[in-house]
Amino acid sequence: MGSRDFVRRTQQMLHDRGLSIRAASRAMSYDPAYLTRVLAGKQAPSQTLAGALDRFLRADGELVSLLAAAPSAPESALATTLRISDVRGAELARAIRETSQRLVTLDNEGGGMPIATTAAHAFKVIHTRLKNGDYATAYERDIRAAAAELAEVAGWALFDAEQHDAAERYNEAALHLARASGDRSMELLILQNIAMVAEWRGHFRTALATADGALTRRLSPRVRAMFLAREAQGRFGTGDAAGGAQALNRAKTLLDDGVRDDEPAWAWWVTHQELDGQHGFALWAAGRHREAAPHLQRALQPTGSATVGYRSISAARLLGSLLHTGAWPEAEELAIGLHSTASETASTRTRNLLSKTVRKSLPTAPPNTAHALEHLGTLVNNDPLALD
User: Fold this and answer.
1) Who's near 388: CB < 8 A, 6+ residues apart?
2) What is the pLDDT of residues 296-318, one digit of tens each?
3) How far apart are CA 352 and CA 162, in angstroms?
4) 230 lies in a domain?
5) Among residues 182, 206, 237, which one ends one of the domains?
6) Which structural domain, as residue segments, surrounds residue 229?
7) One-character DSSP codes across 122-169
8) Which residue in 184, 219, 305, 335 has the fewest CB atoms around it within 10 Å?
9) Cα-flanking dihedrals φ and ψ of residue 340, to 5°?
10) Could you tell me if 35 and 21 are in contact, meaning their C-beta atoms sit under 8 angstroms apart?
């Protein structure tokens, strides 16, 4: 019994009642992208969601009981990762997917958990098995598709850990596997990751070419919005700020039309909040801090839908923009607010950016703001494995 049983039973109940995910989400006032992700096994369901579904589907407590029997995420992540070494055939594909799903859940818990090493190790196990032919060939296509997803998770985690060379290697491996298995949906997510890493490394024309190539395809609204955001970053990076703003506005318009039932399950994170973060990042990177701040503030607003573990990067950028424009009271308030989460933030990108922001701003900040920044810097630079 556990979350998989909860997901299967919920899917069955929706099917039996002729209900789509979108219809159920609307009736319960939930984000359809969040519910899609939960029912695809990509996001851990909450007890609150289980209760809402139970009431909506009149399950008489069955769904709540199924979720209550689920193991904790960390235990399940370790157990599933170990299983990829000793199963074959359909069970191997299933074990790989479960490993990916648990790792994604951990990555989005609170401020995120450091999954890069675990994800990379898990994929290396599968990579070796594929190279040695240690699998049931009748299930080769499904196993390779599942392996592509796991390599994509590892590539993202390595990027967030600022291990960019390794991220590029895992992204390329993921892309090869996705294409070999015919998984076009996963191929698109991997291409967006490749463009993202290229942008981060300053290779904006490469990123722009990757995004533009994807945009020639037939894409769902969320996926098109995702690549328009990548195009925008590439255009801002190459000096075409007007073109970047136009691409982001087109992306936001696509999301205004609502969420379709046929969107890929992985596209749950492509939201207005994400696009505001992207817009703020582009302006922040261009040094247009006063314009960036409102976008970054909106990216941090709670929406009631599922959030990503890496959203703290927007808080770090907002802090930099406030400090750069001399908005001292707002910067001090934000810095104090970050004190409670800074030492638990797993994202290396976020920790490094916060540390750099503090060092750069301390000499010019007024006393109260400087005190808040100094304490934030201490928390960010503490050993993340230390125990109080």
Assistant:
1) none
2) 999 998 765 555 556 789 999 99
3) 9
4) yes
5) 182
6) 184-270
7) HHHHHHHHHHHT-S-GGGHHHHHHHHHHHHHHHHHHHHHTT-HHHHHH
8) 184
9) -75, -20
10) yes
